[in-house]
User: Fold these one by one.
Assistant:
Number 1:
Amino acid sequence: MSLKNNKIKNPVTQPGSALNNKTGDWRTEKPIIDPNLCIGCSRCVKMCPDACMLMKLDKEGKLKAEVDYDYCKGCGLCASECPVKAILMEKE
Amino acid sequence: MSTNKKKFNSFLSPGHNACAGCGQLSAAQSVMRALTDDTILISSTGCLEVTTTAYPQSSWQLPWIHSLFENAAPVASGIKAALKKKKKKTKVVIQAGDGATYDIGIGLISGMWERNEEIVYICYDTEAYSNTGIQASGSTPWGANTVTTPAGEKSFGSNQQKKDMLKIALAHGLNYVAQSTTAFPDDITNKVKKALATPGPSYIQILSPCVPGWKIKTNQAGEGARLAVQTALYPLLEYTNGELSNSSINKNFKALPVSDYLSIQGRFKHLSEAEIKQIQALADKNLKLFKL
């Protein structure tokens, strides 16, 4: 993108436009959550550097963790912080 | 402002370029949970600035500005002055690394604290200049192996003690000074909320494990930051009006040996037993000093 073709008039970017940058393809290992073991404590959500761990209600109305694989870089921090070991890292 | 905040529930959206397992970004997410959308963020130069704003993209869903490395404090003062003129109560929060805080920006930070402006200063302490390739900063602890303090036959790494930034902040008469680590996200969120509610300037320092800097695995940021607290090398502290709060004191606290903390990090793996003893002495000193 060059300034010459006048596509960019000023350096102000859109809020949260980094969402266009899908960092999921950095991943070599993938976190898999066992919903039967997950106690919904949201420790993984609070520790994730990429804010791509989300808490969602399941059919019984219980909070369960879910990964957004579009952005998950596969660092494994969630798996090592999970108090009940409900997250396993699998080779991509 | 159109945002995707609903889906990701964070003012710091995914898609940033920080390393996988970054301790600083993890801490920054905890800071974001304490903020409201009536906040202006200022970043000094550092990993947080570079990784979240790779042009033409930005991860921030709040008004955000970056100036020079040393300049975050005066930029915040200017913003505060403009808000005062407009009679707005928007919060102003500075986020900086340890290089910008301990070394490069310290004179200007001192000036900001002197002016007694209501600005929250958050320092993500990675204990080195992580962004430029792990050079030693004023925050690098004794014995750490960095690019500019390499360990080898004739050197055990950094021969300088970590600068006590909390004491410098307290010497300026700040009403709220606190210390936390990445492993305690709720503690960080609570401390930032308290700082925002305190009149006058406040300072929060968060130990943020750096994966390449500490030479740890990508899943060890939590473990490293937790062990720093459990070994009393980096206790969770809180000073209100210059006094150590009761919340910082835990009578049943039993410290782990510092070798537990040092052994998981590549930057300390060259240390001999005698050198580890010297670091243990620092932890023992903390235990007495803070009555942990």
Note: The longest strand of chain A covers residues 29-33.
Number 2:
Amino acid sequence: MKRNGLMLLVAAALLLAAWGGRAPVQASPTLDPGIAAEPALAQGEPVTVQFLTWQDEDSLIALEKMAAAFVASDPQYANVSIEFTAVPFEQLFPTIETAVAAGAEMDLFAADGPDMKHYAYSEAVVSLAPYYTPEELEQWVPQSVEEGSFNGTFYAPPLMQSCSLMFYNQDMTDAAGLEPPQSVEGWTMDEAWDAWLKTTVDDSGDGVPDVWGLRWGQGTWQGDYEHGIMRRSAGPVGSPTYQGVGEDGITFQGYLDTPEAIASFEDYRAWHIGDRAVSPREPIAEIFFNKQAAFYVSPDNAIGTINRLYPDGDFNYGVTGIPYYEDGAQLCHTGSWHVGVSPQTTNLELSVAIAKFFAGPEGSQIWYDTVRQLPARVDMLNTLPEYQEYPQQMFAEGLTAIGIPRIQTPGYTEYQQIFAELAQNVSQGEGVEVAPLVQDAAVQMEQALAKYEGWQEVEPGS
Amino acid sequence: MATVTTAAPSAQQSTATRRIFNWRTRQMLLAFLFILPAIINFTVFRYIPIAASIRASFYEYSLLRGLGDFIGFDAYIRMASDDTFWKSLQVTSLFVLYKVPLQIVLSLALAVFLTRETFGAGIVRSAILTPMVTSVIVASIIWAMMYHSQQGLIQSILGVFGIPRQTFLSDASRALPAVTVMMIWKDLGFSFIILLAGLKAIPATYYEAALVDGANAWEAFRRVTIPLLMPVLMFVVVTQAVFSFQVFVPVYQMTRGGPLDATKVLVYYIYQQGFRFQDMGYASALSVVALIIMIVISYLLMRWLRPQT
Amino acid sequence: MAVAEQHRGAIAPSVRAENDTLELVKRVANLLLRGVLYAIISLIFLVPFIWMIFGSLRRETEIFQYLFPLNWHTFFPIEWTLQHYEDIFGISDAGKRAGLNFGRNLLNSFIVSTGVVISSLVFNTMGAYFFARLKFPKKNWLLAFVLVTLFVPFEVTMVPLYIVVRYLNIQNTYWAMIVPWFASPFVIFALIQYFRDIPYDLDEAALIDGASYLHVLRTIIVPLAVPGLVTVSLLEFQFIWNLFYWPLIVVQDADIQVLQVVISSQTTQEQTFWGRTFAGSALASVPVIVIFLALQRYYVRGVASTGIKG
């Protein structure tokens, strides 16, 4: 009697649950190419396009301006409005995943270059190859095209580029009697380390420096973008160490854990722990801008930050090349934001037009005017006056001379998670040997990326 | 809704006296109406997602690629040989074992100490509640700054007592205790305020009776406060154990599970698998196991702390 | 105290004077000890908060510059400024440029948290009453049904929950942030404990007199459980107030976004706007502290009802 009521209730709950359980299946994106919202466009009804992007003040302002310019660019777009949703950088990747899994409204999204392969592999981005001729792809530097491609097919055009060089606080280098060369060539790792040691100052004499020689990389996360440079720099161009990953994009043993790469991790440990330490063991995000570090490896967006924090110009800085291993090669990691068209779009042609416009000459110019970071467009690199002279010129030169994309694999996200943990363990794991940590990380990476085996045979866009 | 109306006739046949039956059923139905909204909520907003997760744990499932092949219990079998999983289970258990007893004892002591209205007690109580109303993200950021091995505020305070600087978050043996201390600081107000309200609910006459019997403060605490507070105490212990078992944000913000996996708690590992390693299927299986562990823990705690009536 | 008074009355006058001085010394010492303890406890809990508040009032480059060694300027700004507050309210040019309007977001947080607390007060009180008082077969199983939902890490069920919310077509609305929380296992569980403290004779008598469940709940249970209801509502309020991940996922429209999300938005890839983060956090914390303070009498033993010294 009583039981019956409860049984019914349980049955109802299970039914509901089963219905809920099906949801992820329904959500897997299906592409309905071409047809989309063109009729609406023709009738002049208002069309709203959803654009998911990362939170950054300047970027958002630039995007709004680009949207306005796009609408004004052609009378047929007069009824188009683009809605930008900005989420904090850390949450962008999970938010895109969630939006895809739930089949949420999303026409366009911004993503970091190396992640684009991941989206392409997962069919979470539409190939734009049909919309660009091979000649048109030459409007960007080759690194950008490579970063926006998957298995040779072009997916997502770039908004800008990047290359990390080494900034220095000139007051501190002057005090230490150092003259960093203002050229991309710069210093070798040994020369640089001497300079970092000279600028690591302990005025209070308590054994802990008040000013550190080095801050390598932005933020407090030891990601691959900057911290993954040293291990690749340890090998000469073309060597497995320099390649960083096997041809298959999923092999790390023999690439991450070569003797010279391990030696670079040993150095990385010594930067943070021991007699020759030049960098605090726990990262301090603002350390260079607060004048507590003499050298800072960063892309050129640091210039904008300095200008914001010191509007009166009371911060003397210079730029030198990124340090490299003499027996290896000098390199900076390239890549920045790309615009992807989501297969979930209901306005395919329109979204493609927006992506093309944003990465085109007009859009890129607006972007650059607000964001002021290294353009990906060849014409702009060649004509913008700032990029013809020091210091910005060095970033343009660095990009073409020593810039290589981060490792190319659909499992970049997984790789980077494990790499960042490795970097943290090496820099903080006092008393734990470096070599086994590196070898273990290589194994972990291979396990995490094993699921991508055969990805190079995947027919793009299929 | 349908379940309610159909429940009545089906139960009808088996009852002898019609009138008593009618009255009883009516009462039962009326009673059920009280819990119905909650049941609807939990079914729609909790059980459907839980069911979806349980289902996903038997599939290859990545958020981007959608549901893939059915793999049965593979994900669960994989756990057995997944060292990181066992490590994370160990870290999580340690965190709960460090945090919950310490937090409960401290908040009980403070609640008893501050229960009476004396001059200044209001300020102290508000001080204890302040961390609770600060978001855990911001609290984590501030504590990471305070713990900083070079320029943390805690180093400055240690310096006043002549103690040299210490590493906390970047030391594999100290990172977890450091996160624990921060979370006790953060959550103390939570258990404190519940215990305060619990103390307030104990009628003063009980204490007067104890005093007449010649009990001193400690005896009164043991014989009156503790037994009468037991339901609330049990509630606080169980919920804190369960919430602590699900700790994620402070670890994500302060140490990212490191160094050397010293703070890689289970939910951090689950998040990593689901959102970073593209394996929501495995993440779901891990949470099913987490769910079972928490059910067992809270069942045992509830039995152990069951209020004597 | 009453006991002590009686004892004293019985003692001879000469001994009494001596005892009085002793009593006075004891009292002063007690008071001092209490004061010192109060100060230490308050400081432990408030120092990070104080540092944050003052951090929101100084220039950004100053915030981390004077941390070590401990000195006056570790806490107190060299250059006081309201810049960060002007920024977050969109008064300053920088704030306008960034499109900040924390006032609006504060209001949103209030709407959402209040909405949840009100609906939760109604439905969870009913639910807790059911579990604490009403007769129902296999009630323990239903309680288990409720409690199990406490045990699932939100990080995993978030995506399916989002799918459910989209299915109901309430995404990107206030409803999406309120409706999933109109009942809470935590609140029901808590209220059950408080309701159990209420003497059974009261409501049983009313029921025998023919009062309805609803009537009993409204006129007997709820009035007697006000401290518990207020306490739990406060906890629920701050829980919803501090939610971050869910509003981030479910709300795209900046006009209805809550405070915690826009505070986190002040951390970008390259940098954190510490001043704005701290100012925003102060803005997010202070109203809740005020609410907790204002409702203090509900969770603190009043002056009238005396307990004994702990």
Note: The interface with chain C takes residues 2-3, 5-6, 20, 23-24, 27, 50, 54-57, 60-61, 83, 85-91, 95, 98, 101-104, 204, 218-219, 284-286, 289-290, 292, 301-302, 305, 309-310 of chain A (CB under 8 Å).
